[in-house]
Amino acid sequence: MRYNFDEQHDRSNNQSIKFEFVKDLYGSDDVLPMWVADMDFKTAEPIIDALRDRLEQGIYGYTALNDAYYNSFVNWVSKRHDWQVKKEWLTYSPGVVPSLIFAVKALTEVGDKIIIQSPVYGPFKSSIENHGRILVNNPLIYQDGEYQMDFEDLEKKIDEGAKALILCNPHNPVGKVWAREDLEKLAEIVVRKDILLISDEIHSDLILKGHKHVPIASLSPEIACRTVTCMAPSKTFNLAGLQSSIVITCDEKIREKINNSFEIMDMKINNCFGQVAFEAAYTHGEEWLDQLLDYVEGNIDFVVDYIGKNIPEIKVKKPDGTYLLWFDCRALNMDHDALKTFMAEKAKVGMTSGDFFGQEGQGFMRYNVATTRENVKKGIYQIEAAIKEMR
Ligand SMILES: Cc1ncc(COP(=O)(O)O)c(C=O)c1O
User: Fold this and answer.
1) What is the pLDDT along the chain (391 residues), one digit of tens a residue?
2) Does residue 371 have its Cβ closer than 6 Å to ligand 1?
3) Pocket perturbation via mutation, ligand 1, pick of 100, 230, 235 by most ligand atoms within 8 A of CB
4) How many Cβ atoms are within 10 Å of 346's Cβ, its own excluded?
5) What separation in Å is there between the alpha carbon of 127 and the centre of ligand 1?
6) Is the CB of 120 under 6 A from ligand 1?
7) Would the CB of 200 count as within 6 Å of ligand 1?
8) pTM of the complete model
9) CA of 170 to the centre of ligand 1 (A)
């Protein structure tokens, strides 16, 4: 079937963070919400059908995760990412951020140093610091609009005692799908220095043409046995409200510790709708996803092209993946607070502030294009008009 991503949906009755929090975050209700990473699109029809069937059963007692649930994931990652995982390697988790926290708590000690690569998704920092571990930053290198890992600095930070690294692949907010060579280099260091790798791959199915996601644990048995991979259908299929994700660990001892950490918090039981949506997404979601990616890429191309031609104060590079655009607004010559106020109050566009991703995000804003082309254009025109008025 053909999906129509141009259709506007009313989310006012959707209890959606993206819309409900606009006034609190941006000071007024008439700000266009282009921030939190979910989509304004309806999910795939087979997922809605599966949920409807389950809903109509009318019985929502305790549920168990069955083979079909795990097999749907095993088949999906084999097909989409050439990664052969075994059912026994999988642990249910309600979300990727909870998985990061459980991995940190289960596999490191209070006082351990853990590395992140800023600018990066804000909860990486809190999942370390809120649990008594020490944050160590190995910032990405930003040159000519391109981000790269700083391997030399990484080795230095490990030599100074860091025990683990949380990787973001694809990388939110910079939209980088790390290339096989980058990951091989990283894996070589992780194995040689014998540290733990926690790999957040929540964006792994949102890959634009010409790029390929490589699960780092798929590179070799040596890196696999030191890696905890976190994946989910939530970003890909707009299911974040259903709380269903997966942790993949091939090392038995690591897995036991992870499983135990979920168990002692009584977090083993799954929401019945999350389970149904997860399985339907990974079994029947491909047709929808391929069409979604075409549409999202069209949105991205529009923004990159339009800004390139009309708004020289903002630099934006086409990402390799995700539906998030990383605007370098430093040429506007505002301090970060002034930039946030300008975008909210003058442009009336609610973006995620760059400093949510660490201090390297100062002067940057993240624009979410997982919405209709009409909204995507509206936001860009509003930003352009506000900047024009200021020129
Ligand atoms: C890199 C990354 N990890 C995790 C999450 C959130 O995951 P969850 O809602 O499953 O906790 C996000 C959401 O934007 C993200 O970008």
Assistant:
1) 899 999 999 988 889 999 999 999 999 999 999 999 999 999 999 999 999 999 999 999 999 999 999 999 999 999 999 999 999 999 999 999 999 999 999 999 999 999 999 999 999 999 999 999 999 999 999 998 899 999 999 999 999 999 999 999 999 999 999 999 999 999 999 999 999 999 999 999 999 999 999 999 999 999 999 999 999 999 999 999 999 999 999 999 999 999 999 999 988 888 999 999 999 999 999 999 999 999 999 999 999 999 999 999 999 999 999 999 999 999 999 999 999 999 999 999 999 999 999 999 999 999 999 999 999 999 999 999 999 999 8
2) no
3) 235
4) 15
5) 12
6) no
7) yes
8) 0.98
9) 11
Kindly give the number of the ligand 1 atom that is closest to the alpha carbon of 324: 16
Record the tokens describing residue 331, joined without a space: 């040429």
CATH architecture of residue range(s) 17-44+287-386: Alpha-Beta Complex (3.90)
Q: Can you tell me the distance from the alpha carbon of 246 to that of 66, in angstroms, rounded to the nearest whole number?
A: 14
Substitution candidate for ligand 1 out of 92, 99, 172, 245 with most atoms within 8 A of CB: 172
Beta strands at 245-248 and 134-137: parallel, antiparallel or unpaired: unpaired
CATH fold for the domain made of 61-283: Aspartate Aminotransferase; domain 2 (3.40.640)
Measuring CA to CA, which residue among 302, 320, 288, 265 is closest to residue 380?
A: 302
Helix (H) or strand (E) holding 104: helix 96-107
Judge whether 227 and 216 are in contact, CB under 8 Å.
yes
Q: Is the CB of 97 under 6 A from ligand 1?
A: yes
For the chain, the structural domain boundaries read 17-44+287-386, 61-283
Ligand 1 close to Cβ of residue 245 (< 6 A): yes
